[in-house]
Every structure is written in C-alpha cells, then in structure tokens.
Amino acid sequence: MDRVRRILIKEGPSSFGSGHAFSFGTDLSRQLHRRCVPLGSKTTSRVASRFEPPPLPDASDASLDRAVASKNYISRKWSRYPKCVPLWVADMDFRSPLALRQSIASVLDHGCFGYSDPSIECTAAVASKLDETHGFAGAVTQNPETIRWLPGLIPALHHVVRVAQLRQMDAKKNSHVSVASVTPIYSRFLFTGPCEGADVLRIPLLATANGHELEYKLDYETLDTTLGQPTCKVLLWCNPHNPSGRVWSRAELLSVAQLCVKHDVLLLSDEVWSDLVYDPVSTPFTGLGALLEEVPGLRERLIVITSPSKTFNVATLNVAFGAVPCPELRRQFISVGRDKAETPPFGYAAALAAYTDPECAKWRLRLLDYLRANRDHTYDVLCRNVGPQHLKMTKPEATYLTWIDMEGLGVTTELGPFFQRHGVALTPGTPCGAVSGVRLNFATTRNTLNVGLERLLRGIDEICIGS
Predict the structure, then answer these.
(1) Which DSSP letter does residue 230 get?
(2) Residues 386, 391, 392, 396: what is their CA dihedral angle, to the nearest 10 degrees?
(3) pLDDT (tens digit per residue) in 147-190
(4) Beta bridge partners of 236
(5) Are 302 and 269 in contact (CB under 8 A)?
(6) pLDDT digits (tens, 9 = 90+) for 302-360
(7) 27 Cβ partners below 8 Å, 6+ apart?
(8) Where are the beta strands (DSSP E) in 359-400?
(9) Shortest CA distance to 201 belongs to which of 227, 163, 162, 174?
C-alpha cells in the first residue's frame, strides 16, 4: 500500500494535535494559530531565515495577524481549512494599496450601486496597460473596442471554447471540439473543457532538474502533434505560468503562436501574473500581443486576458478584461459570453487606481521585494532540510507560487489531505494534472509562512519514516 495511504488510514490522533504551541514571540501570533491549527510543536531552527524579509508592502499589514485571528475575518483561504496554515489558494495576506482602497471608498461614499460602465479614464488606463505590458504597442489605445470587459478571467476560458464550437457549427462541421493545455497547470484550465462538453488534451511539460531546482520546458513535438489533432480547436495558455512560475521566453512564445496558426487553433493567453516578474532583465515578460506582426494569422486567433486581481489582491472585485484584436473573433467572443456577470463600480475604481496612481506603482515594487525574499526563504528552507532525491521544486521567475514535486518520496496518492493532517493547506497536484506535486503560496507574512513550512517538513518526515 502506498506510504501516504498507510499514514492517512492509521488510527490515533493526528500528528499535530499534541505538544506545545508555535512560538512567534507575540500574543497576536498565538491568537492566530489557535484559530488556524490545533496546538502543535514549536518552530525549530529548520526554518531559520537566511533571507530576512524587507518591510511589508504596507505598514498596516503588520496587524494582519490580529485580523485573521478574528472569526469575523471573511476569507475563503483562511476559513476553508480552519485548522491549517493556508498556503493554498492564489490570493495574498496583504492589504491592497491605500490609494486603491481610497478609490473604492469613494464609490462607497457615493451610495448608489447600480449598473455601471467603465469611465473614459478607466478605459484609457486599461488600453495603455494592454499596449505597454502586453505588447499591443498602441493598437488598443487607437481602438478601445478591442477591449472586452469581464467579471473575472475564468469566464473567458469558457467563452473561447464556445467560440470554437460556434465556428464548427457555422462551418457545418461536427461541433465537438477538444481543448489543449500544458500540464501541470492551474486546475480551471483542465475543468473548462468538460464543463462546455469538450474533451481535454494534456501536453506534459518536460521537467529537468539541477539538484533541487526544477524547471519546466515545452515539448514542441508533443505540442505540434496535439494541436494537429482534428478536434483540437483551442489552446489555453498561461504566461507567466501557474503553477511553475516560468516566464516563457519570446522564442518559446513564437513557436507556440506559429503552431496555433499552423493548425488553426484559437490561442487564449492568460497573462494575469505579468506584473509579478522578479527579474525583468534576465526573464523579461513578453505578451502575445507583441507577436501579432511577426506571426501572420495570429491576429485572427488570439485572445489575451488579464486583470489587476493577482498583483493588487482584488480578486473579488470582479474586474478583468481581454484584448481581442480581430473584429470577427471579438464579435463571436461577445456573442457567446452574454451570460457574463456585471463588473461592479468598485472593480472599475480599483483598476483605475491600480494602473494610474503612482502610489500603487510604488506599492507593487515593495510587494515584489517582500515576495522575492519569501520565495528565496521557502526554497532555502526546503532544500536545506530535504534531499534532492526526495524533493524538487521550482524557483519561480514570476507569481507568488512554487511547485513542489515529491515523486522521489514514492508518493502515488493525492498529497493535499495528508498535509492537511499536519496543519498546512496546499493546492493538491491532481487537479493540476500532476499527482506527485503540490503548489505552495508564499504571499503571506514571514511568521505565517514559517509555521506552514515547519508543518510541511514534519509531514515529509513522516513519509520518510513510514517508508
């Protein structure tokens, strides 16, 4: 029987249910962990930092321990697994920038919350963002009709599949289509196709390792073969990549775009992580919009989507947008997506502040400094304490997520429930297309991260002892 399965079914109290409380040196931290997890053993020198964090993005974030300790704190991340340190869902334990919060407050003060449309200023700010960051080079500013406002990114995944089905019906062909994605990938990329009656085609990324460090690369031969299947009509793409944190190079993106044109496949590029690149010099972000002139035929097949949600921690304000440069594709994309929800005025206010207020720009740089230190700390702690034969992990070039592969532990069972027994919630690998992996979110305060890392290490210890 699998090692993890043996541990999960053995009788007796959970391994984190006895002993002493974690020590953070403050009463607030003890309050936090009474809410998060049952009492467990103390943190150890295993999580001692060689990468001290810089100041928090906002000074008020220092009081977040008090906020999450309160039962009135409304957060899926913290409430879904109330006995665990939550290092799973992709949002942050940092307050959004003050300027952005003030922009939202101005809408609240107005007191009327009816249906709303983006202001001229907001549309101009988003157009500029698409032009400058995502490579459209002035085209969206010249033609704002290119923009398709969305209440989130996930609806766009569904809408592009519907477009592919619509095109098949218009051509009087079988409307059955397949949707391709590389794996591992954010789980919704794999769920969207079946929700719309389409098949999923998985294209495993090639994993290479140098010691502990895991890197994913494209398997061009498999990508070409998969996109060439008769039913394959959509490639759902993520750049930067969730969960590995890869920033795909221009050369890689060029090959992807050319193959989509070659096989007449719609290419939807989710670029929501583009503002969280750690070293823009060595790993520059290239938006697919930058390849329109270089790849004939890409314009007729490309949809780029993004949002301020990840960078500015405003996921539930329901503001996102796409750039669809081809008028006919845009018409189809709109026609199949008329069931989308409304973006609230708070979302438009947040987007305007995020992309125009200089204080938000400064906050983003402070955020990157803090996340970079947490990334390096997470990598250092796990690599110091677990041998490369047992654990390999990415050192993300972007995002606040790292992918950890534990195939070397002999694991063949889903790891998520196992680590929850040890008091840490991680995103399990199976929904992402890789059973032996987990995704860890390090966008939290260093104290909380350390408790999660300690509990993760104790879970790995138990697997090793039980082998």
Answers:
(1) T
(2) -70
(3) 999 999 999 999 999 999 999 999 888 879 999 999 999 999 99
(4) 268
(5) yes
(6) 999 999 999 999 999 999 999 999 999 999 999 999 999 999 999 999 999 999 999 99
(7) none
(8) 392-393
(9) 227
